[in-house]
Design goal:
169 residues, alpha+beta, 3-stranded antiparallel β-sheet
């Protein structure tokens, strides 16, 4: 590692912190167990077939669970769900299992958990993954989409900007 690499890495992180991003809780449930994490590194790829990418640090506990389960739900959080984001980001003292006890959950037709009150739920299956640096990039084909009335009524989304949560209408 050169002397410039740590500086470049910090500059990159600082630059990314000023890119406002939607906040999501990714849940997976199956043979490998149930787990969820808060993420902003979620992006659309194409609408035919509907596909998104998720970028997850290779040290994340969810990685082996998601790889084995192969299915997930992307919960697009509303601004009034900051507590959900904080719980699943590990910002509270709740254990991974306790995080599910503090919120109301329903199962989609794919069997994956979706948090009540989210703006949208996107259920999908992992169709490909690839290692890039410190992260695993997952390509997820979306099989079920639910956009809720809250979204249609212009409820603000939860966003992350300058390392803080906020709302955006």
């Amino acid at each position: 590692m050169s002397k410039e690499e740590p500086i470049l890495q910090q500059d990159f992180r600082n630059a990314m912190s000023v890119c406002a991003a939607g906040v999501h809780v990714i849940t997976t449930d199956g043979a490998a167990g149930r787990y969820g994490i808060t993420m902003t590194a979620v992006s659309s790829v194409t609408d035919m077939p509907p596909t998104v990418i998720l970028c997850i640090n290779r040290r994340s506990v969810i990685l082996p669970v998601l790889l084995e389960n192969g299915r997930l739900c992307i919960n697009v959080l509303a601004a009034d769900q900051q507590d959900v984001a904080e719980h699943f980001a590990g910002m509270t003292k709740l254990s991974p299992e306790e995080r599910f006890e503090y919120h109301i959950w329903h199962r989609g037709s794919t069997g994956q958990l979706q948090v009540e009150g989210a703006l949208a739920h996107l259920h999908g299956k992992v169709v490909q993954h690839q290692t890039v640096g410190t992260h695993e990039v997952f390509f997820v084909e979306i099989e079920e989409i639910r956009v809720h009335q809250k979204e249609l009524d212009n409820a603000p989304a939860l966003v992350y900007f300058r390392r803080n949560f906020g709302g955006l209408s």
